[in-house]
What does this fold into?
Amino acid sequence: MYFQNPLSFLLRAAQIYPDKLAITHPHVKHPVFYTYGVWSQRIQNLAYALIEAGIKPGDRVAIIAPNSPMIADAHHGVLAARAVICPINTRLTVPEVSYILEHSGAKLVIVDYEYTHLVRDAKVPVVVSNDTGRAGDPYEDFLDRGRRFSRERGWAGLEWEPNENAASALCYTSGTTGRPKGVITTLRGSYLAALANAYETRMTYDSVYLWILPMFHACGWTFPWAITLAFATQITLRTVDPSQLWYHFLNSGVSHYCAAPTVQISIVNAPEAKQVPRPITAIIAGSAPTARLIGDLELKGITPVHVYGLTCTYGPFMKSFPQPTWKDMSLKDRARHLARQGHSFLTASPVRVVYQPADGEEPDAAAELVDVPKDGKTAGEIVVRGNLAMVEYFRDPEATRKAFQGGYFHSGDVAVVHPDGYVAIRDRSKDIIISGGENASSVLIEQELAAHPDVLEVSVVARPHPKWGERAMAFVILKTHSVAKWQGRHDEFEGELKRFSKGRMPGFACPEWVRVVDELPKTSTGKIQKVVLRKMVAKL
Amino acid sequence: MYFQNPLSFLLRAAQIYPDKLAITHPHVKHPVFYTYGVWSQRIQNLAYALIEAGIKPGDRVAIIAPNSPMIADAHHGVLAARAVICPINTRLTVPEVSYILEHSGAKLVIVDYEYTHLVRDAKVPVVVSNDTGRAGDPYEDFLDRGRRFSRERGWAGLEWEPNENAASALCYTSGTTGRPKGVITTLRGSYLAALANAYETRMTYDSVYLWILPMFHACGWTFPWAITLAFATQITLRTVDPSQLWYHFLNSGVSHYCAAPTVQISIVNAPEAKQVPRPITAIIAGSAPTARLIGDLELKGITPVHVYGLTCTYGPFMKSFPQPTWKDMSLKDRARHLARQGHSFLTASPVRVVYQPADGEEPDAAAELVDVPKDGKTAGEIVVRGNLAMVEYFRDPEATRKAFQGGYFHSGDVAVVHPDGYVAIRDRSKDIIISGGENASSVLIEQELAAHPDVLEVSVVARPHPKWGERAMAFVILKTHSVAKWQGRHDEFEGELKRFSKGRMPGFACPEWVRVVDELPKTSTGKIQKVVLRKMVAKL
It folds into this structure.
């Protein structure tokens, strides 16, 4: 008997809509188009192939691939073999990948041909996918072996995981410091997170989901299962190329995609950008969208849905739920509201924002967590438990214990709760700028600076200041058409932006320094790496 | 910590959309309109009042009421007191109600003023609601006591049920024979069923749900929770009056309602019926809609969604999932497809149709259930287990054991599985007409006869026949405008309908007898009581 297992969504889709297009992979030499019927057969073959290869219930299977059918297959097929999917970030280095393979104890790796160099030190069997979908491709041969091994026993021949709290995935966080940590999530949690994502973003049978977010990132925020649950169609692209994205926005009936603000900025600023023929829901996470980005998206017929989450919460578990009153607001006011993290998803337990231990004080495991007041001012830490909180850090009881002080998972994100109950992230503790005893939020400063007409993207970090302790330093990418305008006059632009800041924010928050840059350091998932900016600042 | 508890939906709604209209009760002397903020406060008061009245976790609280705010409150408030809601059909007799009160062991009854006679023998405290929402109403006084007893502890002062598998409801089936049986369902199951109902019927923030289905029937198919989950608005009406329904279809922005086909027939035939200003989703269950009904609904802008379920499956757990190809079909063909029961809901385990033991053979508890082939012909029994199957018949281990032969709940409904995997009910075993060794389905005969232009509603049962063993007898209600046409000529109409049958169905299925009647015997939930028709036939 199976209760809450995201694999059930695939079997339903294959049963109810076998002829519906499930997945397409168009920008390769031999594009593929699989219906739910065909795709589920391929996934079944994968499950049998894994079992034949010796994979036992609970074993980890590592996947290294860009967005492509193989990694989509694996989100279902690995679970069908009662194994745990361990997707690995393709932008890691060989030592990092080796560490994860070692630490996860993965018994097998399936790797895309472009990333085989990452597993050259692997001590376990490696299956290579050439991403062709054709005979002769080692991955296809692997599926073939599975099919033969199945001896036509079909889905009925695959034993269903009896425990809904068994692990579904092991995702390593792309920690900016220290060793990556392995996040264990469950079948039940993946099922419930997928349900919430489908419902909260209104994905249905008619939806077409375009993959922009890497699927290796927190299992694509559970969208591989949410899309299937909705009987929707998904399009995979190996790379994120704004021209290609616009081709699909304009020609493929795309209705949904997920991406961090930085990617969204490149989308709205692409030369191909125009009104989309079908309304699109853009799911934004990673950081809050600015008013400018929201306005630019809406102008093109793209509705931003701002969600918030972490790998440890199955990706998104909060949403800035729109209010009817927002319709009458100015774009700026609306953006200010939409930029908040909001409330928990349908299937998540209510989020809490709790007082943090004072500086230097060791957190007391036994101490009860106390909520901050709903005053929009008092900062606390976002904590969560229940359906959409991870189980543990794999093979790291000490880190797990620390993360679950007081019985809640501690996000490390600092937030306030507004009088209307909406949670709004101020900053990660280390991103707060303490200037003359005042706490300045780098997020709020960025929101304001992004409104300047020449600013494409901006990131703000603290820089030591002899008088104030710290002061804000802004790193700015100029818009394409503004680059020439300020050519050789970056000093003047600095003055211009500082003047722009005055009156928009308190003096202690105004940037003391502005540097124009060509690009900002980002993680593979599009998050700006402030840790790198801070290192640059430290050397100034 | 709470995991899967439908009460969580109310708390979310009150937190995220406190000012949204949650529930209105317009057709009473003092209409009420409660926002989610106000409503959740009333429900909190109810929970405290129950606790003050001595209700302990797991206790049953009986509710006897027409659709009204009180019974809607109770679906949340009783759960908030960690008690079990036991809604009782208002159309039962005093001995039946007494039996249920006794058998359920209810510790308290909340009863609507119109039904106080039903609890005159009650041996437990009774709270009467005058359905006024005003001071002086005993129910309002009860809520007031709860508020005072709470001493402003709020929701935080109410202990949350820690076990998601604790009972949420005890619903007695309106058995046509024998004592009613009490169906125990769980918090988790109610949560998942509500999720599925909201998703499968596309209920969202913008939806307005009109109560037609009695809320006392299988907890209103979990819609009290599904509506709240979606942040939708609900309208309660004490009675089902087509004119009143049409007033709301035309003026209140109604988007969803649930009703059995008989009620739907009265809706489309009401003199007020016309094109609705906003598309409406009509959720149909109880029996399959006929082609005529589907056509009549669609003409008015009402889209039928055909679902199937039982009290033992939290109400609907299957849906006839529409296929894109249906759009090009004739109404009759489309109706034939939509009339099937289809596939399991999102959160339900896949349904099975299994061979039944041969006549007179005792079912073997240990024997494995075997699926019938997908040939559209071989009849078997619909069985189900998992998330959306009840736990047990309360205080009846023998009936529970019988119902769960082979580990699955046995629905008693006989069905076939079509080659496309859609399940279609043929008949309950006792509704099959065995004529000259052939099995004729009364459902299929009814579908055909309903196509006759003078037929408003029809029900078919077996009647003993000297030559063929059994033969079909049809009971027909004529359409209003056809009554005069056939006045005094029912014999001629019988001939007309028998001629109409020829060619439309095999000879052994054609009705041998036709009787024109003014009304058909129905259960309180609109199901035709074939058992009563069979008794009439037995006396002929």
